[in-house]
Amino acid sequence: MAIKDLAVAFNGSENAQSALKFAIQMCKKYEAALTGLHMRMPPEFEQDVSRWISREIMDTLAKAGAEEAAGIESGFRETVTKTKFSGAVDWVVEEGPPNDLLARAARYYDVLLMGQFSSADDKRPRVRAEDLVLRSGRPIIIVPNQYTVRPFNEHAVIAWDGSRAAASALSNAMLILETKTRLDVVTVMSDEDAQSKKGAPPSNDIMRHLKRHGIEAEQVTLSAPRGGHGPAITGYCADVNPDVLVMGGYGHARLREELFGGVTQHVMQHMNVPVFMSH
């Protein structure tokens, strides 16, 4: 099934603008439709306060929220117009917890694109990419904060460790990978793994699988630095500057990664290229 239906989470922030521009590039390449998803929180008050708020005030707040959403839609459509995108464009606004609504909405699109995170002084409700990776059931492309969108160089990197999560990400990204002219299959090994060979997934299997899809890939083995596998992957991407990094998200339990650190947590925080992630 071809990539034909892309959505982008859009709240008007600078990071969301980058995600939108990246989404438009993908839509042009794959001749896909584009939908902007804007999820806004309704006004919230403590129960003992809300009973004293008049209907007039609630109506005023609702009107202000609608006007803000309309302004964000205007910014979305202005960016689309400037890029001269001529494909189908939709705009969807829903009211409620953004993470819950986006996780549900993502299931109706081939891929959901979003910004990495809002700036520290951003007052908008925080959308957590890690929540969407775990809960949506669909692949997510996360565009780094302050990322400058550029023409595709048709180069992708996949972080491969032979795990279930990596296999899922590879399968979900295959339609993207098949269009690339260069694919690096990156495996990170610690010194202990390299000596024992225990940490190395079978290289011939994945390379043979990709070749049968018409993909000529290059295998790259990296040594894990003191900081772990995550810095090795982001460091490699900084050096080769691919269009996208493909990786599985949360191969270990999320709680463990948040408490003790992990590859997913590091990449989420330090990504330097767009990351295609699925769980």
Short description:
It contains eleven helices and ten strands. It has helices at residues 14-30, 47-50, 55-82, 98-105, 129-135, 164-177, 191-196, 203-212, 229-240, 254-260, 263-270; strands at 5-9, 33-40, 89-95, 111-115, 140-143, 155-159, 182-189, 217-223, 244-248, 275-278.
Task: Give an overview of the whole structure.
The chain is of the alpha/beta class and 279 residues long. It has eleven helices and ten strands. Helix 5 (129-135) links the parallel strand 4 and strand 5. Helix 4 crosses helix 5 (129-135) and helix 9 (229-240) runs parallel beside helix 11. The longest helix has 28 residues, at 55-82.
How do the strands of the widest beta sheet line up side by side? 3-2-1-4-5-10-9-6-7-8
Number of domains: 2
Quote the average pLDDT. 86
SS-derived structural category? alpha/beta
Number of helices: 11
CA distance, first residue to last residue: 20 Å
**What is the CATH C level class of the largest domain, in words?**
Alpha Beta
Largest sheet: 10 strands, mixed
- The proportion of strand residues reads 15-25%
Beta strand count: 10
CATH homologous superfamily classification of the largest domain: HUPs
Low-confidence stretches: 255-261
Question: Could you spell the SSE succession in H and E letters?
Answer: EHEHHEHEHEEHEHHEHEHHE
What is the architecture of the largest domain at the second tier of CATH? 3-Layer(aba) Sandwich
Give the proportion of residues in helices: 40-55%
Question: Can you tag this structure with a few keywords?
Answer:
279 residues, Rossmann fold, ten-stranded mixed sheet
